[in-house]
Amino acid sequence: MDFKIIWKVIRKKLCERRILFASLALILICETVLSLLVPEVMRSFIDGLGNRGTKWLVLCALGYCLAVLLKGGVSVLNSWLGEKAGWELCDLLRVDLFGRICSFDVQRHKTVKEGYFLERVEGDINLLTGFFSTMLIDMAGSLLMVAGVVAVFFRQFPALGFFLLVLAAGILFLFLRSQTVIAGMWREARGAQTRVLGEFSQDVAACMDIRGGRKEEYARERLEKEFRALAQSYEKASFWGNLPSTVFYSLLNVAEGAVLLLGVYFLQKGEITLGTVYLILSYVGLLNTPFAILKEEFSKMPGVIAALNRINEVYGEGQRERSCGGISQMEDGSIRFDSVSFAYVPGEPVLRDVSFQAGKGERILIEGRTGSGKSTILQLLAGFYMPDQGRIWIGGQPADAYSEDAYRGFFYYILQTNPILEDTIKNNVTRFDERFTDEEAERALAAVHLDQWLRRQGGIHALIGPGGVSRDEAQLLAWAGAVLKRPGILLVDEFDAAIHEDTIEIIDQVITRLPEETTVFMVSHRKRSRMKITGRICMEEGRTVQIMEGEI
Fold it and tell me: What's the pLDDT score for residue 249?
């Protein structure tokens, strides 16, 4: 198992918050030391009952109470820091994984069932959140405690310490050796869960079709079969996953019993005091808690390993990335496609030998049937993909000669359905570009006739979400962003497919008022627009069948 990419993401957060994690490690050590100190104080108290004065006994009692109180406070602090550290690590991993998934080819998303990636981002990482926030901390603390107890036994009773060490190490080794097989079972169970959730999500989305086709009984039986298989896979993984930890804990209990018998034997021979017997009993008791925790947490380890494997699979999947050059700024919006061919899936070309050119500031309309390659042209222009054959030129330079920042600063992309984020109106318009002021964002909203809507919402910093914005309002918010950013190249993908006529009229006015140097490439659902078109590209089955120039 190679988790280099996951470890790289986690290591980044460890470096950023090294003080937090160093504090957590220090607190774990302090908690262990205090736990080992309490029995020592009580042993001194017991052995001093007949030999020491009242003052000594009072001091021992106060020391005992203080150690117990400190241990409780340190334990609470340890839990709080562990939760904080675990959530920070997993949030970073969640965001990084989300970015990785978003970078996959469109075809990759089409080949998986709904909920496939969500189950990996939320299902698997939520499992890891428990691992990093409590499980890992509990295991580290428990192992520290076991090591501390063994060290104390070695110092005072070397034979007992050696016996405990060999037994614990041997059982732990055998336990860890069994985890690979069990992790495979949990991986199968998690895979079954992903499949079932995908089936369930698709059936819910298609519930009207199922009812219309009278397929309810078939869908119900199929889902019941899937859920039954899921339950069986989880039962199998759970049974075999708990078996090694149960054996581990049972054998350690035998070891504890053997140590206790040896302590009683030495007491009868007069080689140790009553306080020392109490010390042995206390340390044997101290072993119960960490061993119980280890048993519980080790039983979860196969599930954690399976989650890490599944996340690692996503990181290991191929993705088509745009190669970036060193030119940091675009200044010219002229565009040329030179015999460009492209396929999302090898052997299934979407574009075939496409050639055209557009000068700076031109307004180009791309027409064609669904699947003819219109949107793919925009995606290639935006740098989402690179051509399989041919070349794209922007501003007289090859597209791959520009840096990522150059693309982000020069292009603006408007989708058919503008995604609305659970955030402020300003951030939805500026797309988190901090260069723009509140006043500039408000003027852009007024340019698309959303000034009254803005007042009703409560101002530029009011929170909005997908459920509180209509399709027309969402589209106008996207165009407000275009007005604000004044891009060098504006890409518009079927903006008028599902909005009202009055909204289309507003957008047509916005297009005519865009700066003259802005080049516009627009895929329109309707074969008309009130703006002046300087060129039209007609697509058919991935080829350019007609290129018309001049104002239309």
Answer: 65
